[in-house]
Task: inverse folding
């Protein structure tokens, strides 16, 4: 289990900015070998200048990344990724505009060789309110966003401050408790999307936008109930967008705790680093005091 | 030297040519029809051979099936597990299986013929709806074998039952699975039922469903053609093929064989290419067409199925309160394809089951037509099962055709009445009468393998509107025998822009005939489906079902 390949699902309707986000990820991969899987509804979403070589089934991208289309058999494509040499570090699935991420997650969940890291759903900040009211696609968008661990509102740079905060309030009321961030031109820190940081520190892979986020490292004073801790981080209202790190579980084992929005996962890898958990949230929203209490170090 | 003329004598020829509806003889030269009439009228075409092998038969134009899938041919390599009797490509009628025990018994018979202890065993067309929804468990299938993986695909195509060995190979024979599509037994292990393509795929590869079922394989394409001969079908669609180049090459080769008895019309499935690429690709395919492989059409799937609760319905939605279904195309993408196809003059057939999907297509088509006026596009709504009268009127105004799923009404009509859409909408589903009254060009179809290929059965279904439980559901929507026979010949040909070429027996058209033992215009309409089919004549070549 410890070496299961992490998979991040990126969903959202047409025009929400999935392709822009994926290209930003590739430009800021920071040495990570990303495998981008796209479904089959359209043209490959990779910016031309990133492409090194194009084969029938696979596109090679600068920095050791790849992109391929999974057609009707995502399970087979994911299994292939797990067997690839060298193996990718992280798989990113870009879902089609009408796909329900929850359905795709069913496939990912089934495979031993991969691990669903999180579901990120994008919404076009300029159109989401109108689209959710649309008689044809409204309920589809609503279901997509309801599946999200992390909602990314895009194109918000085109909104004034008042409109932005109005939109955020509207989304918060519509999708209560969902982790929500704003992104300009697809810029979301890579660590936030992929959890691709060492569990005791945050890298600066996604340079842009970092100013909006705060991160804090907590070292629990003693062994904890890892499951309980993970749940508390995910649903305790501490402003956590993502958390990752090791703790000593009450069972005596070292546990890896990973949180994306309200998704919490605990695993027990063969090798674990020293206890320490990185928590990332929006600046001003990360509840440092509450978290210190949760970790028993406050 | 003159080209030989053959004149076939028949008990009766129903031409579907309104200006000469019946004849006793038809003259054929170079695979085409010189004319239908009396022997005296035809004799003057020149030296002829009088062929009276059909002297006691009734000839109709070869039937045209406007919505089927060559996949039916591929599925017959697997064990038939359906509720209804069904005839295979070799003419053997497999009895419908009425209990799980009988399914297990048939699988055991097939298992005994397999070599090696671990070769997979696969079956198809299981439909627990008719068995009071009793669920098949892996324990049931384990009675067949514990060493070989076994998988049975349901008639819906969206559920599969597998045995323990198959779960084991897929790494799923374990506790702790938390997945709504994988029901668990009291022991915490999966029951073996896999509900949905997402969870079927990882197991399917171990039980013989590994290949992309949408595309025919070579043997399947040959078997499919045998079914065509047995049902009187001479032109048939393959209504959603991915059509990669190896598949296209194979289809060109197989259909080009001297004795291939059917004309296949494959429609390119829209997924996999951006709209502009799709248009370019389908134009390319169009130019590769031959007489027996007609490419250059596009298939879009807008929504899912009604019995799977994945069709998109308008208010008030599903009768049992299920949430609305799924889109398989985004409205913008649909629009882009329709615009591009109208401009490029490529026909598009669009699957819409729910009335909301139909409405979206009608509205999108209206806008696309204002941008790209096209006087004769014949874009066709496929299934279009829940359309109401207003939608049929709009379809007529837009120049669209409909191909209604008459067979579905028989197989699932009761289910729709009781569960999915309730009595009123179930009663007007596949509203053939309303469609014709509204002036929409109409065909009716089997969607084989979803229901068995058989245009006479399909005509029977539209004429009688009887459901599997024996009720007449929606007698106001019944159509006459003549109208139904038109729908399975000229009606379907029209939706393919082939009505000038096939669909009736008249001068200049392809010599495609359905050779029947009885006269469909004379039998009791309740017996239409029971008319024996002797075989076909396709492009002037004679194919006897008994010789296949």
Result:
């Amino acid at each position: 289990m410890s070496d299961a390949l992490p998979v991040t699902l990126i969903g959202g309707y047409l025009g929400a900015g999935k392709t822009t986000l994926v290209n930003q990820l590739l430009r800021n991969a920071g040495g990570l070998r990303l495998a981008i899987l796209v479904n089959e509804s359209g043209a490959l979403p990779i910016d031309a200048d990133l492409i090194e070589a194009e084969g029938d089934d696979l596109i090679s991208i600068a920095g050791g990344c790849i992109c391929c289309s999974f057609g009707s058999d995502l399970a087979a494509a994911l299994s292939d990724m797990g067997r690839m040499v060298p193996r990718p570090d992280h798989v990113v699935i870009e879902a089609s505009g009408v796909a329900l991420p929850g359905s795709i997650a069913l496939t990912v969940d089934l495979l031993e060789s991969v691990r669903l890291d999180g579901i990120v759903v994008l919404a076009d900040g300029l159109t989401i309110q109108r689209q959710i009211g649309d008689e044809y696609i409204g309920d589809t968008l609503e279901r997509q966003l309801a599946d999200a661990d992390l909602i990314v509102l895009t194109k918000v740079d085109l909104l004034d401050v008042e409109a932005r905060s109005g939109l955020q309030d509207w989304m918060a009321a519509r999708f209560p408790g969902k982790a929500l961030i704003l992104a300009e031109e697809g810029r979301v820190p890579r660590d936030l999307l992929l959890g691709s940081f060492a569990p005791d520190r945050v890298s600066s892979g996604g340079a842009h936008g970092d100013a909006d986020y705060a991160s804090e490292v907590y070292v629990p004073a003693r062994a904890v109930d890892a499951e309980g801790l993970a749940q508390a981080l995910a649903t305790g209202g501490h402003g956590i967008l993502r958390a990752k790190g090791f703790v000593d579980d009450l069972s005596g084992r070292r546990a890896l705790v990973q949180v994306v929005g309200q998704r919490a996962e605990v695993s027990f890898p063969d090798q674990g680093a020293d206890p320490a958990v990185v928590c990332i949230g929006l600046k001003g929203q990360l509840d440092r005091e509450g978290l210190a209490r949760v970790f028993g170090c406050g | 030297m003159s080209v030989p003329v053959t004149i076939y004598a028949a008990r009766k020829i129903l031409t579907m040519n309104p200006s000469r509806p019946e004849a006793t003889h038809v003259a054929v030269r170079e695979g085409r029809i010189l004319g239908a009439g009396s022997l005296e009228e035809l004799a003057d075409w020149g030296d002829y051979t009088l062929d009276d092998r059909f002297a006691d038969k009734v000839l109709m134009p070869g039937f045209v099936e406007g919505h089927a899938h060559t996949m039916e041919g591929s599925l017959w390599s697997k064990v038939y597990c359906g509720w209804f009797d069904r005839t295979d490509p070799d003419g053997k009628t497999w009895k419908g299986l009425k209990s799980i025990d009988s399914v297990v018994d048939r699988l055991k018979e097939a298992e005994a013929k397999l070599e090696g202890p671990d070769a997979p065993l696969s079956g198809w067309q299981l439909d627990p709806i008719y068995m009071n929804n009793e669920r098949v468990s892996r324990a049931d299938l384990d009675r067949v074998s514990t060493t070989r993986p076994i998988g049975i695909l349901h008639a819906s195509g969206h559920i599969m039952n597998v045995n323990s060995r198959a779960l084991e190979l897929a790494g799923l024979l374990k506790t702790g699975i938390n997945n709504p599509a994988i029901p668990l037994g009291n022991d915490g292990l999966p029951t073996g039922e896999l509900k949905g393509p997402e969870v079927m795929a990882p197991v399917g590869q171990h039980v013989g469903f590994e290949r992309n079922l949408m595309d025919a394989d070579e043997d399947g394409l040959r078997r499919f053609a045998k079914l065509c001969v047995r049902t009187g079908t001479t032109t048939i669609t393959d209504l959603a093929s991915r059509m990669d180049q190896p598949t296209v090459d194979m289809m060109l080769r197989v259909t080009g064989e001297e004795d291939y008895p059917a004309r296949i019309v494959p429609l390119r499935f829209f997924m996999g290419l951006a709209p502009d690429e799709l248009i370019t690709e389908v134009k390319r395919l169009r130019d590769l067409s031959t007489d027996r492989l007609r490419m250059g059409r596009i298939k879009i799937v807008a929504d899912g199925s009604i019995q799977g609760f994945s069709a998109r319905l308008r208010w008030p939605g599903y009768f049992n309160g299920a949430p609305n279904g799924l889109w398989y195309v985004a409205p913008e993408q649909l629009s882009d394809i329709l615009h591009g196809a109208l401009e490029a003059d490529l026909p598009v057939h669009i699957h819409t089951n729910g009335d909301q999907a139909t409405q979206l297509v009608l509205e999108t088509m209206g806008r696309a037509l204002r941008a790209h006026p096209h006087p004769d596009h014949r874009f066709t709504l496929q299934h279009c099962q829940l359309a109401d009268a207003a939608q049929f009127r709009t379809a007529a105004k837009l120049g669209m055709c409909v191909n209604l799923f008459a067979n579905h009404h028989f197989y699932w009509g009761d289910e729709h009445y009781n569960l999915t859409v309730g009595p009123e909408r179930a009663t007007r589903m596949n509203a053939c009468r309303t469609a014709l009254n509204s002036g929409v060009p109409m065909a009716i179809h089997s969607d084989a393998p979803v229901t068995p290929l058989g245009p006479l059965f399909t005509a029977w279904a539209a004429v009688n509107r009887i459901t599997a439980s024996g009720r007449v559901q929606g007698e106001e929507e019944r159509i006459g025998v003549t109208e139904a026979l038109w729908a399975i010949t000229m009606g379907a040909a029209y939706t393919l822009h082939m009505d000038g070429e096939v669909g009736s027996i008249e001068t200049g058209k392809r010599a495609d005939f359905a050779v029947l033992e009885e006269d469909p215009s004379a039998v009791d309409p309740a017996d239409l489906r029971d008319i024996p089919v002797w075989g076909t004549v396709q492009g002037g070549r004679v194919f006897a079902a008994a010789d296949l």
